[in-house]
Amino acid sequence: MEQQITHIAPQLPNWLQGQDVTALAKVAQAFWQKIEKDLFWWLEQQHSENAQEAILDLLAWERGITRLPSESISLYGLRVKHAFANATDAGYGLGMEHIFKRLGFGFIEISERLPGYDWDMVEVAMLETEFAGNENLVTEVIKQYGRTCRRYFLTALAAVDTVEAIGLVEFDKEVVG
């Protein structure tokens, strides 16, 4: 014999009616929107180009970046943003070129084992206009991402545009880390 089961839902007590229910729903919705906003704020802070300076300092510490004296916040944020990629590219010529390009340098050329130089010397060639004002940054990049068993020297190229000739002039500077 088949028993028929009827399910009767119990009635829960309801003490809120009409406008009270609407007001409670608005308060609950506002509360959860604030929670969501705070969570998304933290996610935005994880991207160094959007982070507040105090958060950026924490991200920099986590990624092994030290702010240089008088370094702009935008360049500092860029260094923090690309810290992992820069660490991955560290130690070889093409990787060093990528690091400098990520930091906004235009022309950069890394040459190893040059004739007439010791085997451990590496040339970093860049435009003199890009090097001017960025001496600390170039030195820091070489110290942080260069090979420890190499000596780096800078060749600064200056564009010369005169009535009689157009060309480049080289200046050498050794960077000791």
SSE arrangement:
Elements (H helix, E strand, L loop, with lengths): L18 H27 L7 H11 L9 H9 L1 H7 L3 H10 L5 E5 L8 E7 H4 L3 H11 L5 E11 L4 E10 L2
Parallel strand pairs: 2-3
Antiparallel strand pairs: 1-2, 3-4
Helix pairs in contact: 2-3, 4-5
Please give a structural write-up.
It is a single chain. The chain is of the alpha+beta class and 177 residues long. It folds into two domains: 20-81; 89-175. It is built from seven helices and four strands; from the N terminus they run H-H-H-H-H-E-E-H-H-E-E. The protein has a four-stranded mixed beta sheet with strand order 1-2-3-4. Strand 3 and strand 4 (166-175) form a beta hairpin. Helix 2 (53-63) runs parallel beside helix 3 and helix 4 runs antiparallel to helix 5. 14% of the residues are buried.
